[in-house]
Design goal:
Blueprint (H helix, E strand, L loop, with lengths): L8 H5 L3 H12 L2 E4 L4 E4 L10 H7 L14 E4 L8 E2 L12 E2 L10 H14 L3 E6 L9 H14 L4 E6 L4 H10 L2 E7 L5 H4 L5 E4 L2 E4 H21 L3 E8 L8 H10 L4 E6 L9 H4 L7 H10 L6 E2 L10 E2 L11 H5 L7 H27 L12 E5 L16 E8 L2 E9 L4 E2 L2 E2 L4 H7 L5 E3 L5 H9 L3 E3 L7 H17 L17 E2 L4
Parallel strand pairs: 3-6, 6-7, 7-8, 8-11, 11-12, 12-13, 15-20, 20-21
Antiparallel strand pairs: 1-2, 3-14, 4-9, 5-22, 9-10, 15-16, 16-17, 18-19
Bound molecules: FE(8)-S(7) cluster (CLF) and iron/sulfur cluster (SF4).
FE(8)-S(7) cluster binds next to strand 3, strand 6, strand 7 and strand 8.
Amino acid sequence: MSNTAFVSIGDLRRGRSAVSQILETAASGGCSTSGGAGKASCGSSAGPEDMPPEIWEKVKNHPCYSEEAHHHYARMHVAVAPACNIQCNYCNRKYDCSNESRPGVVSQKLTPDQAVKKVLAVASEIPQMTVLGIAGPGDALANPKKTFETFRRLQEEAPDIKLCLSTNGLALPEMVDEICQYNIDHVTITINMVDPAVGEKIYPWIFWDHRRVTGREAAEILHRQQMRGLEMLTARGVLTKINSVLIPGINDEHLYDVNREVKKRGAFLHNIMPLISEAEHGTHFGLTGQRGPTAQELKAVQDACMGGANLMRHCRQCRADAVGLLGEDRSDEFTLDKIEAMEVVYDLDKRRAYQQQVEAERQAQHAAKVEALQAVPAGGADDGIAVLLAVATEGHGKVNQHFGHATEFQIYEVNAAGATFVGHRRVDLYCQGGYGEDEQLPSIVGAINDCHAVLVSKIGACPRDELTAAGIEPVDQYAHEFIEKAALSWFAAYRERIARGELVHQPRGDARIRQGAFTAAA
Ligand code: CLF
Ligand code: SF4
């Protein structure tokens, strides 16, 4: 593995204060969980008390950088970057299904002019849209003219919107000046390896210096550019997030090294995502049978990385033209023909006023949750029992969704120390057209099969029986309670049942990760 430091960390620490703040925040790493106080201080779940105010200003309403913010604020992507300068074995941009959500998928490619119109239209319709990202469908920095033209205009025409870009990093070092020029203060770099021997199994070629480079040499160049680009961004005070695709048998164990290396270089967050490799997508991995990880494999790698770079666990693997809150996609409402027919009024004051209201609601919700959690008795002595719970929620931090209406479940890990959000699972909608689709049940059960219980606001008899038969307890008695409070209350009762000898704690099995999300079903 290459440990070459292109900019010494010591030099970075002596740099601007923003730089030291990023490094200190990255270095704080770790994860202190105190579910009883309502705080799961872990990576993107961190709050203002976990970081300097300047950094909090940058992340507080960015739905990807703050787990809490993603319940309140939306992002959008504009697909102005069709070309790519490398080939990843998990990517095929020719495949497009408008009903599917996963990176690289897009329905309409845009010119910068169209993109700016679209952003202004969305900003006027969705005032809580705070972040504009360019994330493909190719690589943002392999299309620098279109990417920076879009950012330049938006910086002038929509000054309150945070600018964000996602790149494979190959062209990054040469573009850092321009990134800073347009106040792009959030950059995601996809880094799947820090060892070119691993990299050559993921990248068949890169386009570099006017030629196609293959094999180990390609991976070495890419690695060098990624590390240098990350260090340069840290040195300039830009917040960075690292996305890594977990590919079982290729980089699963290696991602621990990736986590440590990017932390050393100041990465703010590390987002470990499951490989999507359905054969029908036509990717190299899909066609050669490379499987993605199971839910427990993904969680095991994420857990092993705790204590290194802070982890993001709420990524929804968005389309390159996604619009809306993470997990929802409203891109259909903003096609070019629909935008033409809209009356677009970008009103900065109105947006600010709306966002102040959103922020006030968020604070009130947070305070109510903390108060509610004070009523929950302490967890007692640690008996080593830890369980996963699936939760159906449509927002406000509460158990407030009918089982049949869930297109995803939030997953909480609960033990004597507290309740911590650890991810989510996409599922196919059970209730369609007012009726339960029983053939969907096995796949829903499969997606939460590692959970001991599912917390819902309501559930019908048929799914109740099927879940119970699978060993997953359906629970609707905490409807409209805050999630953490409900989780801790259920867990306390669960331990009491064990203590009374009514049941024996059994470990659960594994669960299946749903490949992509079919947005039409939502
Ligand atoms: Fe988009 Fe990415 Fe910016 Fe977010 S997404 S460019 S950082 S605004 Fe977010 Fe979507 Fe996951 Fe990306 S949930 S795929 S991490
Ligand atoms: Fe596809 Fe992105 Fe890889 Fe390019 S960098 S091949 S767009 S996944």
